[in-house]
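quick one
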Amino acid sequence: MLRTALTRLTAVMALSTIATASMAAEVNVYSSRHYDTDDALYAKFTEETGITVNRIEGKADELIARLNAEGANSPADVLITVDAGRMSRALEADVIAPYSPDLINRAVPAHLRHPDNLWFGVSQRARIIFYAKDRVDTPPSTYAELADPAYKGQICIRSSSNVYNQSLLASIIEAEGEEAAKEWAAGVVANMARAPQGGDTDQLRGVVSGECDIAVANHYYFLRGFDKDVEGLTAGIDNLGWVWPNQSDRGAHLNLTAVALVKSSPNTAEAQKLLEFMVGDFAQHHFANQNNEYPAVPGVGLDKDTARLGFFIPDSTTPTASFAANAAKAQAIFNEVNWP
Ligand code: FE
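structure w/ fe (iii) ion:
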């Protein structure tokens, strides 16, 4: 009798613990993605799991500094950055813990995640070459050719403080070595049409206005010019051609929106569920459709605008983890060659 009563009591306690936990179930996300459309992503997760998502948005460096300052008391469970390179700072700050890899690593190819499961990519963004069709007969076909003196005075590319450029250079360091990377950076500086200014859209605008003939930008800034009327871009967009670089060797440079589990996470189980949700069908389609990104999970269909850029070979031999690992070297090279 006593044994039965105890068993029942334990069962009731266990149930009430679960009930309390699920009522209060939440996951806290520090994110440097700033798209309102991501609301739909988190709403779907809550609908499926009952777990509330609380989001704090900010620049990656600010979020990492905040994690660092909060230490073990941080309420954060998940960190999201829009560039794998930024994850290097989170790793340096020692605020990341490994996620449970079973489901995630089956979905995400090895080159799009950290070798020790410290972060993984959920969507991919290509950094490619654009050019004025009416002024450039033979655009550069590789990143290396951006440094060819034949393109002197023609190239618009943003500043070296931009993390997309830092990751591009980090990938060149990985693929071709530091010396070649330095020569490349110096060559690009020599070919600049103007001192770097503005964001990626401004580089494309530079081609439209005629200030430069060739620009380097992430692919979705170009596609946004079809989605909506982007001032200085949409009206002249038909004259912009694009090049998928390095198609006969390592492939085009792609960066990632990367997600990680925070070391001090107070809601690890909920956080893990959110990480797994992000490699699922709904989330993968969401990333592809709302910002014209390329899904990290192979086989997920593309948005029609994204498909407009056609087939390409991505660089899947240079690990994205090297963008973070080589971030400091890349910054040193940019400083050495005086890339503003
Ligand atoms: Fe961007």
